[in-house]
Amino acid sequence: MIASLEREQGYWDIIVIGGGATGLGCAVDAAARGYSTLLLEQHDFAKGTSSRSTKLVHGGVRYLRQGNISLVLEALRERGLLMQNAPHLVSNQTFLVPNYVWWDGPFYGTGLKVYDLLAGRLGLGPSTRLTREETLERIPNLRADGLRGGVVYHDGQFDDSRLAVNLAQTAADSRATLVNYMKVTGLIKAGSTLQGVVALDMETGTEHRVHGRAIINATGVFTDGVLRMDDPEARRIITPSQGVHLILDKEFLSGDTAIMVPQTEDGRVLFAVPWHDRVVVGTTDTPVEEPSLEPRALEEEIEFILRHAARYMTKAPEREDVLSVFAGLRPLVAPGGGEETASISRDHFLLVSPSGLVTITGGKWTTYRKMGEEAIDHALLVAGLEERPCVSQHLRIHGWLKNVDRNDPLHFYGSDAPAIRRLSEKNPSMKERLHRNLPYTRAEVLWAVREEMARTVEDVLARRTRSLLLDARASMEAAPGVARIVAAELGRDSAWCDAQVSAYCRLAEEYILA
């Protein structure tokens, strides 16, 4: 990818700044239409918000309650398309809304029927009202005291950073050039018109001056920083909101059904969702002043989740039960400012600056494809490029495999799984697990470095595998072995290994509750 970047001496059609869900969606869309496309990411793909979601591809039940029908319609359609385009990563997840107040059943039952109708032919299954007994049969360790019944509905569930990696591969399959650890530090202008970017290789310190006909700012919570590069007087449009999740052992949620609590103290929805043989519980909605690549959960957020989870689970989770805690920042767009983050719209926002900079931000994982399509449509107009129709609606994402065995530990690699198995056949030591409490093997580390642009121990343990989230302590114990495999592949020495392990363990300690 670096060689491809250096070979191009002229103008790229499209340069995308940011390698999260939105930037990758832009790169896939542009490359699939046949435009020369370059994506630059300051850290690793999906390092920020895009690897820290609730792991749901959903229409947004709470947006329906807020009356934002257009957002729900768009998200439900995109949910259906994503399930068709990445069936190895997106699955149909059953959710249950427990009713403890008599009017909850009719209220949510009716609302979820509307949700079904809005999904239309891309629906995942009808919602159904359950009796008290049927509800407890679905989730035996749901608190029975005061339970009147429940409502079941369907939504999508996925692995966020794995989808990000597959999107990067999809764009590369269409000849896009994507470079992680390449930070955009400035913009190039001819007069007042944007002409390109200045980018710093974070590994070597080499600076690159790259020209492009259209520049897209898809940097999520860092959107304002790029806008100020373009115009130092640019007003702030992002109001970051922090969402925290806890990972618990699967014993806290028996069965395969997720819990959705539609109203918590701060107005958010609380989810407890089965994921990778664990349970993801969250989330919160806390305003944050400044964006960060590694946001930290606040004590009050952790206690909030534990307190609410205890209201619905027969075994109340304690701090020592938490395998990992992670925080992500939502790039909420509030151009007017002054609103509570829980009430700010989750719609995406598109802005074309006088210089020609195209900014796409806000939104959520579910609508990443639509955001990419709209951003590229605007970029074509700005750059005066030949218009070509969008083809991403039915574009199969790298790894596409229709019939997936969800019990196969490699199923989320889709069509790449056989190649990973062959690595183990060539070298039996590659079959060894990274840690007894983690489902991953040494072969997956090798694959991550060779085929998925993993550059560090963190890339492997946090995003190519999900070890950091599934069990932060176990991932720290696995780090030295991972470092040795990565070092052998990248030609690094023992000092590099030691530095990597030390840096990773410092990071992972922040995911463990004291």
* Fourth CATH level, the homologous superfamily of the largest domain: FAD/NAD(P)-binding domain
Helix content: 25-40%
Secondary structure category: alpha+beta
Number of helical segments with 4 or more residues: 16
Rg computed from alpha carbons, rounded to a whole number of angstroms: 22 Å
The poorly predicted ranges are none
Q: Per CATH, what is the topology of the largest domain? A: FAD/NAD(P)-binding domain
What is the annotated CATH architecture of the largest domain? 3-Layer(bba) Sandwich
Proportion in β-strands: 15-25%
Whole-number mean pLDDT: 93
Topology, number of strands:
18
The CATH class of the largest domain is identified as Alpha Beta
Shape: globular
Termini separation: 41 Å
Describe the oligomeric state of these chains in a short phrase.
single chain
Biggest beta sheet summary: 10 strands, mixed
Q: Write down the domain tally.
A: 3
Walkthrough of the structure:
- 35% of the residues lie in helices and 23% in strands.
- It is of the alpha+beta class and 514 residues long.
- It folds into 3 domains: 2-49 and 162-237 and 341-394, FAD/NAD(P)-binding domain; 90-157 and 241-331, D-Amino Acid Oxidase, Chain A, domain 2 (2-Layer Sandwich); 411-509, Helicase, Ruva Protein, domain 3, CATH 1.10.8.870.
- Strands 3, 4, 5, 6, 11, 12, 13, 14, 15 and 16 form a 10-stranded mixed β-sheet that branches.
- Helix 2 (21-32) packs across helix 10 (368-383).
- The longest helix has 19 residues, at 472-490.
- The radius of gyration is 22 Å and the shape is globular.
